[in-house]
Amino acid sequence: MVVGMKLKNRCAILVLSCDKYSSLWKPFFLQFRKYWKDNPYKVYLGSNTLNCTCDRRVKTILSGNRGDWSSNLLSIINQIPEEYVFIWLEDLFLTKKVNSALFHKSFHFMENENANHIHFAPTIRPDGISKNALFGYYSKKAPYRVSAVGFWNRDHLKQILFSGETPWQFEIFGSYRSSFFEGYYCIRKELFNFIQIVERGKIFREAFEYCEKHNIELDMTGWQIHTQFHRLISDINRFVFHGIIFVPWRIRLFLIDILRKMLATY
Questions:
Q1: Full 3-state SS string of 213-266
Q2: pTM of this prediction?
Q3: Does residue 8 sit in helix, strand or coil?
Q4: Which residues of 217-249 are buried (b: 16+ CB within 10 A; e: fewer)?
Q5: Which CATH number is 5-224's, of 3.40.50.1000, 3.90.550.10, 3.40.50.720, 2.40.50.140?
Q6: Is the pLDDT of residue 116 over 90?
Q7: Sign of the torsion formed by the C-alpha atoms of 90, 95, 222 and 220
Q8: Cystine design at 174: which of 27, 29, 170, 200 (Cβ 3.0–4.6 Å)?
Q9: Going along the chain, which residue ranges are E strands?
Q10: DSSP assignment, residue 201?
């Protein structure tokens, strides 16, 4: 599927980062260019004060040191002219070829359906299937219907961004704020394969070993590798999270409401 010039000029890729993670930019874009050679969209890199010099095709947008993630993102979004944007994170390295056709169809879907946000994968199960079966939809009150990574209508994203929030707070509280709006979807098939390099300021041991095996050069200056203890905590958190979201959210809310009534004191 060839993307039209009109749509191409209305869509962009934003690789969201910060000065602290600048050592990841070169390997990220090497993987990006390797596995998405036919990317037709303009690529921005958002950071604080440092410019990206490792890829001349990337335009850097600076937010300054505003002190919190959401304020930085809002400053960056305000400098992007395109109507639709796919937000990527600099520590998500591509490992296989990107499904370009599905990328284009997602932007077309946003335009045709007046969508506000599309998850890049069905990590949170949708509440139903849209009339285009490639996409599922999320109901208004569904938790985690907001994901930082994914397709966004830029103006809508600005509406639900509040200063002072971390990415995790944005996904929780932004989901509450988004409950006034329709137009939240997910892609029901794999958009791209990636390996996450960093969690909580440390490099995953598996990611480090993957990069070594595939000759991806990581500058380890200032980085620590996850210990077995950190990995255990991460695995437990992930297990609990996926265990919770496996239960349909309406049932979760029903059970929480019962528990609240049982524990209520007067």
A1: HCCCCCCCCCCCECCHHHHHHHHHHHHHHHHHHHCCHHHHHHHHHHHHHHHCCC
A2: 0.85
A3: helix
A4: ebeeeebeebeeebbeeeeeeeeeeeeeeeeeb
A5: 3.90.550.10
A6: yes
A7: negative
A8: 170
A9: 11-16, 42-47, 58-62, 84-89, 92-94, 117-119, 128-129, 135-137, 150-153, 184-187, 194-196, 198-199, 202-203
A10: T
The pLDDT of residue 262 is above 80: no
Name the helix (H) or strand (E) containing 207.
helix 205-213
- Two structure tokens written together for 152: 């966004």
Residue 163: both structure tokens together: 């200063």
Q: Are 78 and 63 in contact (CB under 8 A)?
A: no
Assess contact for 212 and 225: CB atoms under 8 A.
no
Give the type of residue at 257.
Answer: D
The per-residue pLDDT for range 131-181, each reduced to its tens digit, is 999 999 999 988 889 999 999 999 999 999 999 999 999 998 999 999 999
b/e for 31-48, b at 16 or more Cβ within 10 A? bbeebbeebebbbbbbbb
Non-local CB neighbours of 184 within 8 Å, separated by 6+ positions: 115, 116, 117, 118, 137, 138, 142, 145, 146, 178
DSSP state of 195: E
Task: Say which residues have a Cβ less than 8 Å from residue 154's Cβ, sequence separation at least 6.
Answer: 77, 80, 82, 83, 84, 85
pLDDT of 259:
47
Contact between 76 and 54 under an 8 Å Cβ cutoff? The reply is no
